Amino acid sequence: MSNTLTIDGNTIPFTDGQTIMQAATATGVYIPHLCHHPEFTPHGSCKLCTVKVNGRICSACTFPAMAGQNVLSNTQELTADRKKITQMLFVEGNHFCPSCEKTGNCQLQAVAYHLNMLDDHYPLFYPQRAVDASHHEVLIDHNRCIFCTLCVRASQQTDGKNVFAISGRGINKHLIVNADSGLLKDTDLAASDRAAHICPTGAILIKHTAYQVPIGQRLYDHQQIDQVSLAQEQTPHGE
Amino acid sequence: MQAFIQSLVASHQHQPTHLLAILRAIQAQAHYIPEAAIKQVATLLNIPRSHIMGVIEFYSFLHLTPQGQYEILISDSITDQMLGKNELMAYLSEQLHVAVGAVRSDGLVSLNNTSCTGLCDQGPAGLVNGYALSRLSRARIDQIAALVEQQTPVNEWPCELFQVEDNIIQTDLLMTTPIESGAALKASYARGWSETLAEIDRAGLRGRGGAGFKTASKWQYCKDEAGPERYVVCNADEGEPGTFKDRVLLNTYAQQVFEGMTVCAAIIGATHGFLYLRGEYLFLYDKLQQILDERRQAGLLGNNILNSGLQFDIEICLGAGAYICGEESALIESLEGKMGIPRNRPPYPVSQGYLQKPTVVNNVETFLAAAHIAVHGGDAFAQIGTAQSKGTKILSISGDCARPGIYELPFGTTIHAVLAACGAEDVLGVQIGGPSGTFIANTEFDRRLAFEDLATGGSFIIFNHSRQLLDIAQNFTHFFALESCGFCTPCRVGTSLLKKQLDKIVDGHGSAGDVAELEALCQIVKNHSHCGLGQTAANPILSTLERYPELYQSRLKAISYEPGFDLDAALATARRLANRNDAAAHLAQVEDSL
Questions:
Q1: d(Cα A149, Cα A46) in Å, to the nearest integer?
Q2: Chain A contacts of B480, Cβ < 8 Å?
Q3: Looking at the predicted structure, is the pLDDT value of residue A199 above 90?
Q4: Record: contact B490-A88, CB cut-off 8 A
Q5: Distance, CA of A24 to CA of A7 (rounded, Å)
């Protein structure tokens, strides 16, 4: 039996062991995502990559590709739902794009533009969250954390460390670091670590680099996230 | 403390999988997990401190800050509220001179709410240092307050405070004549293990947790997995508000439950099993350990069961206050000493469960039924029930009725018949299957208990006409927001948004469009959440909105738009700062005054 499935009516190939996301990315089909990154074990938590597989809702980043699957992704209904999920991420934290140094390079912002999100829709939570500026090279602004765990996974899987973790339950979930003091400066994080560069939002930033690239010349200023994402992720592990 | 932790961790063989048990013990000793303990446990178990922090902050019975020497928690289930919990809580707070959610300044006592403790037939209920308190009343609260002030150790408190009754009212196939210890094992051994699996298949037994997956198929899949190591897990984390049948089954029918687990182990080839007991049932722990010991001595557990060379033993693991751990993959994570976060599926537990090994997870009642089938065969079982739901269902009945308690009824029984049996009158509706189930109105009582009609894990809460439907929906919606594990966006944020949106309407701040908005939000949470918790969290709203839309509409204001916050309340700080409280310092919605 041939290893093919269809996404939005187009037949695409896949290899055994691939997820729907991997198969889609490899053939140049973009499925919106934030917690997924091809270098790391899939997590399946942001739910932006929600697709319908044979009528059933699944996360494309974790669900295995199987022969004959009929996958719907770029539908009006799913795009509307993804927009709502993105709005949820915006209201639960404190995301003020105009004053954020990540603006233009931020995946959360770029996904929101891609989904044509024009407002927050839901009431803002205005949570009280701290900034950890203790580390001399890396800053954590908890206001912008979306709990995607990319930093957790990058630290464990690429850096061979264990700097970050997610703690707490439900809406009180929060990012913590592995130090008795609870401060980033007391961890073994180095600014060159993969974990310091993986944050899809402005929650983990490298200090002293903020406006080296001016607004207007940034990653998503002239390209949509689908093009950027496919260009970066179609050949994972490639240098 | 240091020596205590040293020997505690040693008694758990330095196993990181035992982290939850270790932290429970430290919490019981110190009434919180001190910073020094976190460091020491991290070193002794050789795990990152962030892992320990994560676990402490995930489970509601573990704390990073000191709780009272008497940690008092009161069950906030709707059934407790119907029995006068709110008024009693206020009285308790007054008598103990401590606010709800606070620790008294002398550190003697702390008071808070907790999710349903499973004593819905004998509430209002609570917990003191983890042990269940039943039938709270003003008199009992006076007694408790005096015991606290006199600093009487909890194990010297009068035992009637902790008296938990079975309240078994009606029995049938499984509960009328329990099988003798060892009978199911002997019968299965004589018949053959594969033949016994065939009997369970013939019986048509389906999982009793509510989802109704065929038990024989689950066991067969697990048996067919490659590799030598397999596990059997009994899910006794019955956190669904209104459910308490597992409490009764483990109190009175534990032999038969353990026997069902042992039959399963022999069939699938497991040597190790777990009973995951919800933390609220701590009072059953010693008794269950004793029963396991008796079974070991009787040759029904251990290295040579029935002298047949069969090996199997059961370990009891206690939860620590997290409803989500009733979800099987979250339960497995918890057994491994982690936060109870549901896994991505596939792979399913039958192929990659505990420690990534094939694992069968079944409900207490399922194992009870399996033991029965092992003795009496599948045909007797399959004769009872409906086409797709064989056998009986054990219901936990609470709420407005004359005889709350445990009822074992054949599948196919109508709701009318159930209500007649327990003496319920003037019924407005019934919540079937707990908050995650369905609310049915009194026009639907000819519906039946069955997987093909009203599936239930056993929770059956009755409401009479004196109850306010929106209060019920509000209690359930708050419950889900509190218990969401927070893993996925739609549930983490969505359950909090549902709570805000429903509160807005119920509190009279809703306006045109707010009900439609509520419904749209329900669909997002239901369709996109990662696990059963989120997928059912909107049910209380959806099932009442479908039946009583006018009730929601009646709470709306006649203005076109009302902001999500109270404009006037938002000015309270400014008024306090300006030391003003005159009319001009207050703001009202413009259209309000019309």
A1: 10
A2: none
A3: yes
A4: yes
A5: 8
pLDDT surpassing 80 at residue B565: no
CB pairs < 8 Å spanning A and B = 111
Task: Test B486 with A172 for CB contact under 8 angstroms.
Answer: yes
Interface test with B, best of A21, A75, A88, A177 (most B CBs within 10 A): A88
Residue listed under structure tokens 């209690």: B475
By the CB < 8 Å criterion, does B497 face chain A?
A: yes
Residue B350 near residue B360, CB atoms below 8 Å = yes
Mutation for A interface: B491, B492, B504, B521, most A CBs within 10 A: B492
What's the ipTM?
Answer: 0.96
Question: Is residue A1 predicted with pLDDT exceeding 60?
Answer: no
Question: Using an 8 Å Cβ cutoff, are B280 and B209 in contact?
Answer: no
Provide φ and ψ at A149, rounded to 5°. Answer: 65, 15
Per-residue pLDDT, A239? 34
| Chain A residues with CB-CB distance to B479 below 8 A | none
Residues of A within an 8 Å Cβ radius of B: 42, 44-48, 50, 57, 59, 62, 64, 81, 84-85, 88-89, 91-92, 122-123, 125, 146-147, 162, 164-173, 176-178, 180
Q: What is the model's pLDDT at position B230?
A: 97
Please name the CATH architecture into which domain A4-74 falls. Roll (3.10)
CA distance A211 to chain B (A): 31
In chain B, % helix, strand, coil (3-state, to 5) comes to 50, 15, 35
Output the pLDDT for position B511: 87
pLDDT of residue A49: 98
Q: Between chains, do A165 and B54 touch, taking CB under 8 Å as contact?
A: yes
CA B317/CA B311 separation, integer angstroms:
20
Mean pLDDT confidence for B333-360: 97
Closest chain A C-alpha to B361 CA, distance in angstroms? 22
Q: Which CATH number does A94-225 carry?
A: 3.30.70.20
CA distance B427 to B440: 11
Interface of B with A in 59-88 (CB under 8 A): 59-60
Task: Give B562→chain A minimum CA distance, Å.
Answer: 12
- CA B437 to chain centroid, in Å, comes to 13
Which among A66, A89, A91, A75 has a CA at the least distance from the CA of A15?
Answer: A66
B468-521: per-residue pLDDT in tens? Answer: 999 999 999 999 999 999 999 999 999 999 999 999 999 988 988 999 999 999
CB contact (8 A) between residue A45 and residue B339? no
- Domain positions in chain A are 4-74, 94-225
Task: Write out pLDDT tens, residues A22-53.
Answer: 999 999 999 999 999 999 999 999 999 999 99
